[in-house]
Amino acid sequence: MSASTTRAGTTVEVTAATDSAESSPVRRHLITWIAVALASVALALITRWIHTGDEYWGQRWTVDLTVYLASGETVREGNSLYDLVVMSPLYGEMPYLYPPLTALLFFVPLSFLPPVVAGLMWNSASLIALGAAIWLTLGIAGVRNDRARWVLTVLGLVMAACLLPVRLHLIAGQINAFLLLLVLLDFRRAPGRWQGVGIGIAAGLKITPLIFIAYLMITRRWAAARNALAAFLATVAIGFLLLPADAARYWGGLVLHSSRAGGVFDTPNQSLAGALARVMSGEQYDAWWLLVMAVVGLWGMGVALFAFRRGADFLGFSATAVTGLLISPVSWEHHWVYVIPLLVWLAVWAWRKRSLPVAAITAVLVLVFTVRTFMLMGIEESPPSPMTLAAWEQVIAAPFPLAGLALLTLGPLWVGRTFPRRNAGPGATTDPSHPAPGAGAPLPQQPAQSGERPRASADPATRTRAAFGRPTTLLGEEK
């Protein structure tokens, strides 16, 4: 549709440009997700080609996905999920570990496909979910320019595929990328009617995201915590409705048997419990590990609450994720995909602030989460006994938990210096690049007079914000 107006004898045509402008964001988002999907399929194919051709990794290719596909077939045949045992030449008996609903939603449909096709589709979908998590994180970090955001999303996805947690995620055929996306969706904007639902669904698919409900509770977001708990209970109820016998067995006790996931002191177990089990004798471990986990859990959640009260909800989310990985009895290397949003956020922060220290720390973390150091040093995946490693080998064998402890120890010092003190209520956020009133905020600039060119800011952070688009809070809300 079009209209015309006349002013001083001049006719100005107003055409359907408005409709075109409204549709351009749709086109930009479509381009983004086409690019992410194509990159994901390409990365899945490249990963398969590289690792199936390697003698070491070829034996481990889709080892977990094989169990998932078998669980789908088991449900279709009417047999019990928790009687299923898949024999692996490397790992021996491998049972199904997740709630019944996970098999119903994911693995029953996937089991209709040939294993090679199922593996390609599963890994491609996992990478798309990871790309979505990176896209959300870039928005949280303040990247508002659409073109920059989609380019950085694809570039970030390619770089993330080189990280050890993602490589092992694809090699095993794991599920954690989907859980990361569900959880992150709840922290991308200010509290709303549906906040918490993603966390609850993720916890219903695999119980480890339950720790984020604790984070919602200590930050007094009661409505979001209720939503998360209700969504979690709904997934449990659906499992009882559709597979009552299996649901009763799982929630009746199997959920607590972490030993079914593998040996706690196996080197790929990068939880704090795994590190302790490789250092201590069996008697020492049994006496101390619960106390150590409790202390670290309280400290980690205290760090998350401190970050939230400083207005850095995303960093509180990241501290909660790291705490959950540390205190879980088993956190395999691929579980640590939860640190990827933090790495992306830190990289954007270092660029926006021109901060060499933050850039250096980010580079060190990327290195830690890229190189499988214990494998390079010849340390076995399953040491014959916990005490066989020398002290230096114990350090080499525990890079992820040591990095996690360092983040929870040094992170609060940086947050305390960087973020202005303020009374943060539920959902309150701030951005140090846009300080709150009374916290040393710069005076607003006077608007330029007519015909006067505005002067460029001398502040590199301000110029960087202009390059990334409109300034935002850490949760991506526009001011």
From TrEMBL:
Low complexity compositional bias, start-end: 432-451
InterPro entries: GT87
UniProt membrane topology term: Multi-pass membrane protein
UniProt superkingdom: Bacteria
Entry keyword set: Cell membrane, Membrane, Transferase, Transmembrane, Transmembrane helix
GO MF, any single term: hexosyltransferase activity
Subcellular location: Cell membrane
Region (Disordered), start-end ranges: 421-479
GO cellular component: plasma membrane
Transmembrane segments: 30-50, 96-114, 120-143, 150-172, 192-216, 228-245, 287-307, 314-330, 336-351, 358-379, 391-415
Pfam families per record: GT87
Family (UniProt): Belongs to the glycosyltransferase 87 family.
Protein name: DUF2029 domain-containing protein
